[in-house]
Amino acid sequence: MHIERFLQDERLPASYARVIEDVHEPLARTIHGKVRYRGHYVVGLCGCQGSGKSTMARSLRLLLEAHGVSCAVLSLDDFYLGRSAREALGKRVHPLLVTRGVPGTHDVQLAIDTLEALGRPQTIALPAFDKSRDDRKPVDEWPRVQGPVQIVLFEGWCVGAIPQDDADLAQPVNALEREQDADGRWRRYVNGALRAEYQTLFRSLDALLLLQAPSIDVVYDWRREQEHKLGERIAAAGQTTHVMSDHELARFIQHYERLTRHILSEMPARADAIVKLSETREPLEVMVRRGLEPTTPTLR
Fold first, then answer.
1. Whole-angstrom Cα distance, residue 3 to residue 90?
2. Average pLDDT, consecutive stretches of 10 residues, N- to C-terminus, the chain (300 residues)
3. Which of 58, 84, 147, 285 has the fewest other C-beta atoms within 10 Å?
4. Which helix (H) or strand (E) segment is 277 a member of?
5. pTM for this one?
6. β-bridge pairing 207-212 and 41-47
7. Bridge partners of 287?
């Protein structure tokens, strides 16, 4: 992997090279070691919005490919239901389901089928979602990969999440739930979807890696930084795609707050690997469990 070129392509600061060397490379070696025992290995990569999971997945893929391992990156975001399907869901169940992101707004069966297909000797089309149009791209625009793929990195903000207890849904966690889901119908639907088809999907994971934010409080700042960078790229390209204002963004991330809090509370106890992040997204510590390799020391 040519680190300098990767940093340029991803518009990352030079200091990110240390993250690749200290965090990504050891994890890539650990994942690479699983290929000896499994011909097809799926790693789930979970992290809240803005935590850097997409960048990490791309870095891991390049590192693994440098070792001669075939690798594909899938994003849960690319399995969103299309706009019309979510609008129909919003009319049938709850208007908040028009907003993409929470469990219940993905084509879970398509994700299951895609993961299974990546383990077979065939050409596979990887679904792609166009967020600027809020709809799935045409099939002829989906990227193709040749299977079987040895390692799949499946990243997403709630990949590997488990449902809450029903009793925990009673009290709203923010203004969105208080004002637009007063009877709890939306959050019960989301939790029910997570309990059912999403657990079927997540059983496809052979390992689960968590990028652990220090608290829910950093999510807004991280996601706002992402949105501002998106606005800069759109302006530089001369496009007119809408970018959320800070007020719109604050409301948007409330859709994810409940499950993000739940993940930060319960997933660290069961994830196979954890990368603890500072408020500035700097990795503070890496812990790898369950016989994958010894716990690594605190980073310098």
1. 44
2. 86 92 93 79 94 95 93 97 96 96 97 96 96 90 96 97 97 96 97 97 96 91 71 61 74 93 96 95 88 41
3. 84
4. strand 273-277
5. 0.90
6. parallel
7. 274
